[in-house]
Amino acid sequence: MSAPLEAWLRGPIAGVPPLLQPVAHALLQARDELHEALHDFPPALLNERPAGVASVGFHLQHLAGVLNRLLTYARGEALSESQFADFHAEVPPLSIAPDTVQQLVARFNHEVDAALQQLKATPETSLAEGRGVGRAQVPSTVIGILTHAAEHTTRHLGQLLVTAKWVRSLA
Questions:
Q1: Which of 40, 65, 121, 143 is such that its CA lies 20 to 30 A from the CA of 19?
Q2: Domains of the chain (ranges, CATH numbers)
Q3: Could you tell me which residue ranges the DinB-like domain spans (predicted)?
């Protein structure tokens, strides 16, 4: 059996505006690759940091947290207290339970689903609208934030994939 097509080759995502299709495809591809890499990942390895690199656990928390925060900024909203608490909780090490990997993957899945819903609700006419990022309200645009959300997700996923393979090889 051949490998499934990458997300961008599967066609348009229903309801997502054409200019936001690349963002949706990147997020769906990240989800696919995360599932493939971590379907049987040992929870005991989540906090491992070979050569001082960020742990798989950090990347898993960070993927979901940053996606959530960036989508908030794209909507023109300020972060909530719970989002700040989540941000501060991303600092390793994680408390490890037998289902920690599944919980973190499920949280990322939830954030990707929320992102897809937000993309569907984002009119293309709003993409050039200004948005502030962070407490300093650094200027960006709706499309700038959404594009960065996809790019940031793929960057951290790549780091997670390499680290996961590395720590498994050392175990």
A1: 65
A2: 20-168 (1.20.120.450)
A3: 27-160
pTM over 0.90: yes
Element (H, E) at 79: none
Three-class SS of residue 131? strand
The SS3 call for residue 134 is coil
Residue 40, token pair as written in the block: 């049987």
Q: b or e along 8-44 (b: 16 or more beta carbons within 10 Å of the residue's beta carbon)?
A: eeeeebeebbeebbebbbbbbbbbebbeebbeebebe
- Of 139, 119, 163, give the one whose Cα is nearest residue 26: 119
Judge whether 70 and 145 are in contact, CB under 8 Å: yes
Rounded CA separation 119/62 (Å):
20
- In angstroms, the CA 140 to CA 72 distance is 13
